[in-house]
Design goal:
Length: 363
């Protein structure tokens, strides 16, 4: 049985406590505001959250921050006659009326602030994690005519795959993990039916036999094998970041300029780390040098070097990917290489948590 997350347990406990406090306050709040239905009053507060806070993009780490953003948005909306951070605008008259209602008495203000705190706790996992930009919310991998897309909330529209941007923040899994691909599947250009995987083992078999095998790299296959073993050994294999093979520089464009051997995206910070396997035999060796001068040989070697350096620089400039390069000496000890990669596979197993259990214990 999986261990309970003490932070989640503490959040749930505080949720129950707040609900009890709201229930106790409600008779006074109802009398002060003249509103008989508690659900209608709750909707007056909660229904405006997307109006006052940019919930699609904001990363909110605490209940205090959530409350501050809500109140700031409320103030701006009143000052600007219906300004909206992320939802439909309201008239100034409506906003002024709502403000008067929510500040009617100390009991109403207390209810209002407690309700916002509970809203934050109930949407904690959605609000605290970084969310990818539109450009970073899809990854395309593979060679020409053998390419696949990994999207967060894929939908097929007008013959193309795209993300449903409105649903990204509600995605139930950690981004760019095994659980992510089990939830969303892989997509293929012009094919409305996604590739889906029922289990972790199903995906790992596809990973080895279809995604990695065509590369022809012995080193890549060896790392992939170790990755599969690593995933299977974890208590929560679905939370392990994807080891993304053959990341295409130009995304879903039919022709690709470069492919990066492997890439890992941290599910929490969204930091990207590339892994380039660069043995001399495929990245540096010059053939047919018998009839060439030393100058010509040096020029060819320089061109190869410049090509590799340019590739890494352009991946960083366009996709913000920092790349680790492994050459023959390091690749000779493939276990040591994988141990270095494991460091980046362990970074996203848990979303950064506020220590609610410690706060509760202290109080």
């Amino acid at each position: 049985m999986a261990k309970r997350d003490p932070n989640k347990t503490a959040r749930n406990k505080r949720d129950v406590e707040i609900t009890g406090e709201l229930k106790a306050l409600w008779p006074t709040v109802s009398a002060d505001t003249g509103i008989a239905d508690q659900q209608s009053f709750n909707a007056l507060i909660g229904g405006k959250a997307a109006t006052f806070i940019d919930l699609k993009n904001a990363v909110i780490k605490s209940a205090d921050e959530y409350t501050s953003l809500y109140l700031s948005g409320f103030k701006k909306a009143r000052e600007k006659d219906g300004w909206s951070a992320g939802g439909s605008p309201f008239s100034a008259d409506t906003l002024d009326k709502n403000f008067a209602t929510l500040t009617k008495s100390k009991a109403v203000k207390r209810y209002f602030l407690l309700f916002l705190q509970r809203s934050f706790l109930r949407h904690y996992d959605e609000l605290v994690r970084e969310r990818p930009s539109t450009a970073d919310a899809e990854v395309w991998i593979g060679q020409n005519n053998n390419d696949y897309g990994i999207l967060i909330t894929p939908r097929y529209k007008n013959g193309e795959w795209e993300n449903d941007q409105s649903e990204i923040r509600h995605f139930p899994k950690l981004y760019w993990t095994i659980g992510h691909v089990l939830s969303s599947g892989l997509v293929v250009q012009k094919d409305p039916k996604p590739l889906t995987f029922a289990t972790v083992d199903d995906y790992l078999q596809f990973f080895m036999k279809v995604l990695v095998r065509p590369s022809g790299s012995t080193y890549e296959r060896e790392i992939a094998k170790r990755y599969c073993d690593y995933v299977k050994a974890q208590e929560k294999p679905e939370d392990v970041p994807l080891l993304i093979p053959e990341l295409r520089y130009n995304g879903k464009d039919k022709k690709h300029k470069y492919r990066l051997d492997l890439c890992i995206i941290d599910p929490v910070t969204l930091r990207k780390v590339g892994i380039e396997l660069s043995p001399w035999s495929t990245h540096g060796l010059l053939k047919g040098t018998a009839g060439k001068t030393q100058k010509q040989i040096n020029e060819e070697a320089l061109a190869n070097f410049e090509k590799e350096a340019t590739k890494m620089r352009e991946y960083f400039q366009k996709h913000r990917i920092t790349t680790l390069i492994y050459t023959d000496t390091r690749l000779a000890a493939i276990d040591a290489v994988f141990e270095e990669i494991v460091v980046y596979l362990g970074g996203g197993n848990q979303v950064s948590q506020l220590e609610f259990d410690l706060i509760s214990e202290f109080l």
